[in-house]
Amino acid sequence: MIVGLPKEIKNNESRVAITPGGVFELTKNNHKVYVQKGAGFDSGFGDSDYINAGAEILPTIEDVYAIAEMIVKVKEPIEEEYKLAKEGQIIFTYFHFASNNNLIDAMVNSKAVCIAYETVEVDKTLPLLTPMSEVAGRMAVQQGAKYLEKPIKGKGVLLGGVPGVKPGKVLILGGGVVGVQAAKMAAGLGAIVNILDINLDRLRYINDIMPNNVITEFSSEYNIRKHIKDADLIVGGVLIPGAKAPKLITRDMLKDMQPGTVIVDVAVDQGGCIETTKATTHEDPIYIIDDVVHYCVANMPGAVPYTSTIALTNVTLPYVLQLANKGWEKACDENAPLQKGVNIVNGEIICQDILK
């Protein structure tokens, strides 16, 4: 199969979909790989690395789309790419269709085969989303701690505190991968961490593995309203696979927060779990509503592309190889988890959750 690896063009997206090591595995299996010039540069991989792995370099994104039977990307196609997708072409990437009706319409019209990383499911886990959720969960606290600084309109709170001064308080909505990784980072800094979820088995697990400064609590509107009153940093990490995230914090609840409170909504790709969430970029990452700082960057792991690219390739490459070796129909027939990743085929919406 002819596999294309375009350079990401989303704002400040520095990741690349496959490392040179992954390209080597594809070419070893007799597949042809075309990489757009400079695609891996920001992740630490030069064109020569890809050439040495057996790929050929093409000058433009148009060239890559035109020749490839399968496009492997990191982020969803943006408007400039809509016209490049073609009928029958496999596009394997993070799509996050639920929050983007224009993208749904464009991919339906293209009649491409759209397979989404984020809906590939194994035993109720999302293996292709997990490593980026791990990165984003850890970054949520890293970024939140930064934006709590007073020069950036935060509360002026040091999350870990110092001797004689109490530590900051972190509220985490959702006990999934994002929530656990965020709790781990916040707890490591010495903050007081409250993590809320509706799954009591998950809360028991978190309670067992976390230190004493992480407190688990059942998620309800009452408990959320209670905790937001004195939280310094709020991390939104709620996920319903393929569908829009529920709005757990509404606009009217902002008035109950202290000025300078920071919200980091990691669920932004799925529409966000905060009503006031709107996607931002690394170039312009925050905005302020009712004196509450919102950080809602839709591609947080793109800021640490070396780590993220390797972590992503580790989990996606086996599926890329299956698709290349067998074609998408046979690969999906033989692999139920991969079949769940099929969202749109030849103009037909297969995964109905993206419409919710």
Can you lay out the helices and strands and say which pair or pack?
Blueprint: E1 2-5, H1 20-28, E2 32-36, H2 47-52, E3 56-58, H3 61-67, E4 70-72, H4 79-82, E5 90-93, H5 101-110, E6 113-116, H6 130-147, E7 169-173, H7 177-189, E8 192-197, H8 200-209, E9 214-218, H9 221-228, E10 233-236, E11 262-265, E12 286-289, E13 292-295, H10 305-326, H11 328-334, H12 336-339, E14 342-345, E15 348-349
Parallel strand pairs: 1-2, 1-4, 2-3, 4-5, 5-6, 7-8, 7-10, 8-9, 10-11, 11-13
Antiparallel strand pairs: 6-14, 12-13, 14-15
Rounded to the nearest angstrom, the radius of gyration is 21 Å
Distance between the termini: 34 Å
CATH superfamily of the largest domain: NAD(P)-binding Rossmann-like Domain
* Subunit organisation of the chains: single chain
Shape: elongated
Secondary-structure content class = alpha/beta
| Mean pLDDT across residues | 96
Question: Percentage of helical residues?
Answer: 25-40%
Low-pLDDT windows of residues: none
| H/E topology pattern | EHEHEHEHEHEHEHEHEHEEEEHHHEE
Highest-level CATH class of the largest domain: Alpha Beta
CATH architectural grouping of the largest domain = 3-Layer(aba) Sandwich
